[in-house]
Every structure is written in C-alpha cells, then in structure tokens.
Amino acid sequence: MTPTRLDAARLLDRTEDLADLLVDTVDGGASVGFLAPLDRAEAVAWWAARAAGVAAGRLAVWTAQDAGRVVGTVSLALPDKPNSRHRAEIVKLMVHRDARGRGLGRALLATAEEAAAAAGVTLLHLDTETDSPAERLYRTAGWTRAGVIPDYAAGPAGVLRPTSLYYKRVAAG
Known about the structure:
Blueprint: E1 4-6, H1 8-13, H2 15-27, H3 40-49, H4 51-55, E2 59-66, E3 69-77, E4 87-95, H5 104-118, E5 123-129, H6 133-140, E6 144-154, E7 160-169
Parallel strand pairs: 4-5
Antiparallel strand pairs: 1-2, 2-3, 3-4, 5-7, 6-7
Helix pairs in contact: 2-3
C-alpha cells in the first residue's frame, strides 16, 4: 500500500472512494471537521472542492489503496503568503477502520513529511483531538506538542473537545 500522489484529475476520479473513507472516519468517531452522521453526498462534494487547491499547487493529496479501494489519505496544505512559505500543514490524515494497525498512518505521514522537505518546507504543523489515537502516532513519529486549546472543535457527536497542536522541523531537501 504505497501512497500515491493525486493530481486534480485523479482526485476527481477518486472522490467517491475518498468520500467513503471520510464517512467511515467520521462514523468511527474521529474529529476531522465533520459531524455524524456525515451525508455521503456532502463528503463527495467536500473532496471535489479540494481539486482546485490541488490544481493550484496549494494542496497535495496522497492516497493508499488496498485491492483498488482507497483505505488511507493524507494532505499537505501549502500556504500562499510570502512570509510563511517555509511551513505547511498536515491535514486530513485518515485510515479506514478495517485497515488500521498495519503502519499505514505512519507511511502516509512520512510520505507527506518527505514531500514537504523536498519542496523546501522546514516546519510542519497540525492539530488533532487531544487524547485521540492519532496523538500517539504523532508523538512516536517525532512531533512535538506545542499546546492544547480547550473546547476547540466539536467531535462527530457534536461535543466540544480539546485540540492539541503539534509541530515538526524537517530538513529541506
């Protein structure tokens, strides 16, 4: 399951599969910006709207597939301001519930980190729900928790939860 970077056309071709992954992630309780139950049409539309950012070079999206089905994704959001071109944000790292425990999340994260370094990025940041399973992944992958913001975002059930902010320095390639 080697992560593959999608261009805008391939992203549009995979929106249905990516929507299935997003719905599964929200149904599984992960706080990725959506409330449950997530309507599949809303998930398809959300992914389709990402194509413009990919085409403009502001967003990089990778997927991992198993037997032709998308089972994981990660994105790298690149800022467009002159004073922030040295940093980027890891967004929407998701692994389907039935594909977890095989190192796929770590592989996707490493892929995005390597691509960021190759693009000259030296600082990465992300946010994740405090005490979520994702926190263990980030800590063991060398990320540093910068702090916690209480009641930052509602989880899929609509309950406000704290969010942990993380950063990682990477060597520009």
